[in-house]
């Protein structure tokens, strides 16, 4: 039924995109505000980058052999002949801006956050959209594991502050250029030996991105790689040390985590720490957030050799868990006062009264559809306003209004001239 109605529509939103309608947008606003507050508590400042960038920024910054660059980007040639791409993630854009505006010179440790749409042409399903929203943070300029610990603490604090239960933090190290290359050789050897048991997709990946096979969701891959060598056993001293210090710091802060040698992240520029926050309530798309260190990216994109660490999280997935766990108890905005009127001749007076209340910051609504008093009262109920005033002959003649408190049923007499002061003086 709904489908056939949808089919008849002249214009529809694009598959994998979602309208955030008025009965939901207030939840987004509230959630975004809370995220901003937490970011500010940790002294991260907001950065906003354009919605599209040169395609080559992402090809370089994410890695040509990743799924994102290989098959998911929204890329188009503009009228000037330039290849542009809607941002599929934020880190590459943030780093481009960091380099372009010399942010490192102004602030040796640059701490920024974002809340932004991102675009990937994936197969839409629950928790996977083509236009989705990410929030995240990047700390650029320190190689020390205490910053990795801060990023993990910040990202998990966000879930904790919303009262979310049953989320897990999984950490790993993906090593550095030196130990990872050695490990990759060992891993490839293992994978070639069992390649006939791998999914066709993973078979293709052995040479280009063998570590990704370890976090494949495919049942055959999971079975076949059960005894695969894991990088944690092959880390060089520097990476091992970094990882041990991170574990120590997280323990010191009493942040619960699991070590999972299969967390590899899809992106090429990660070094050392990689982590994911997952929820058992999200089904197959269980990642709430992911992040890690990317000491190689800034140089790769033409900046100075600068270490950095960050995380990115999905807004829609946070909202899904909030809803499932009944934690989205936010207050929908509503008018404080609804002014109804008994006769059309009072419409202008009502408008003026509403204008005065609104000018004093008191939210207020009245009828625009020339409806009967009965319908107006129904509307006041639908709007869920705290107070209702009815303007009639008697009120106009006497200059006194009856203000009804819709929660308690109590009625107060208030002089028309005094109405805004009455509401300003209410102490609620
Ligand atoms: P990633 O950059 O792939 O690690 O993504 C970071 C986070 O963004 C994930 O943990 C998800 O919560 C979210 N995310 C990624 N892709 C999508 C998508 N297509 N739809 C909705 N959320 C997504």
Descriptive overview:
The chain has helices spanning 2-8, 22-41, 55-62, 67-72, 91-100, 103-106, 145-161, 177-193, 200-208, 219-224, 237-252, 297-300, 315-324, 347-359, 373-383, 393-398, 419-425, and strands spanning 45-46, 52-54, 75-77, 83-86, 110-119, 131-140, 167-173, 258-259, 271-279, 287-293, 308-314, 337-341, 364-366, 387-391, 400-405, 411-415. Helix 3 (55-62) crosses helix 5 and helix 7 (145-161) packs parallel to helix 11 (237-252). The relative contact order is 0.11. It has 3 domains: 13-176 and 236-324, BirA Bifunctional Protein, domain 2, CATH 3.30.930.10; 178-226, no CATH class; 337-426, Anticodon-binding domain (Rossmann fold). It has 17 helices and 16 strands. The mean pLDDT is 93. The strands form 3 sheets. Strands 1-5-6-11-10-9-7-8 form an 8-stranded mixed sheet. The two termini are 46 Å apart. It is of the alpha+beta class and 428 residues long. The chain is 40% helix and 21% strand. The longest helix is centred in the N-terminal third of the chain and has 20 residues, at 22-41. The protein binds adenosine monophosphate. Adenosine monophosphate (AMP) binds next to strand 6, strand 10, strand 11 and helix 13.
